Amino acid sequence: MTIAKVADYYNQDPEREWRRLETHVFEWATTMHYLERLLPPSQAVLDLGGGPGRYAIALSQAGHRVTLADLAKANLSFAQKQAEELGSSLAGYVEVDARDLKPFSDHTFDAVLALGPMYHLLEEGDREKAFRECLRVLKPGGLLVVAFISVYAALYDAVITDPASLEEWRPRLRHFMATGVHHAPEQGGTFTDAWFADPFQIASWMSRFPLEPLHLIGAESMLAQSKFALYDQPSQVLAEWIDFACETADTPAALAGSEHVVYFGRKC
After folding, report:
1. Strand ranges (DSSP E) for 120-203?
2. How far apart are CA 107 and CA 110, in angstroms?
3. Cβ proximity of 192 and 9 under 8 Å
4. What CATH number does residue 83 fall under?
5. Containing domain of residue 108, as a range?
6. Which long-range contacts (CB under 8 A, 24 or more apart) does 153-162 make?
7. Is residue 121 a contact partner of residue 99, using CB atoms and an 8 Å limit?
């Protein structure tokens, strides 16, 4: 079962995602930039599929009341430990499947972040269930934030990490761009089962839900293939490029050039 495989993947190494956001600073900084702009003070926030709690803890430290919900028990335990070490306190840690948020009542949260679950739901019907559950627990006028992985992400990763192996990558890259579906091998592999979205079809797909679209951003802007080179630059230079990414994240070029695409909408 895919969901069990996904949970097992994250239970094996809950620190993996915490470390990943330390080395993918554009994704982190751009997403936080928009969250800080759009969230009023002291909001009740559900961080759904929030993994080890990086966003949850940061938002808690900013004064929000954050409940972390995740499929993997190890993620929740790791997040609780990290929060305690950082002197933060979350409103709750809940093990849950994004398709069924029965622990939460209707209209409970001012904002729902779904930065993790959607790209692990391979079937469109499952993604729709998760969206409708997010909207059910979200208050009218509340903010919904959803992250997607682009179908072009594997291409950018191949260019960066293994450019000499195009012939080996070619069938897999074409499969990703045609279907958006990745089935992890039973043994090995660097990622679990996942669904990759065409960034230019996200807005249309989201229009079926009662949401006022606010922003659709490419979290790395146009820098997905260049970001690691920028990490070797002086801190001031890197900061300037991060600012540039935030300024240009909502352009068509940023959508095409990013590995991660984030939708921000307000419930009607």
Report:
1. 138-149, 181-182, 194-195
2. 8
3. yes
4. 3.40.50.150
5. 2-149+198-267
6. 153/196, 153/224, 153/259, 153/260, 154/182, 154/196, 156/224, 156/225, 156/259, 157/259, 159/225, 160/225, 160/228
7. yes
Write out the two tokens for 109. Answer: 């949260």
147 burial via Cβ count (<10 Å: 0-12, 13-18, 19+): buried
pTM score of the predicted model: 0.93
Distance CA 99, CA 137 (A): 12
DSSP string over 96-110: -BTTB-TTS-TT-EE
Total domains present in the chain: 1
**pLDDT tens-digit readout, 215-241:** 999 999 988 878 888 888 999 999 999
- What pLDDT shows up at residue 17? 84
Please write the tens of the pLDDT for every residue from 114-145: 999 998 898 999 999 999 999 999 999 999 99
Max CA pair span of the chain: 52
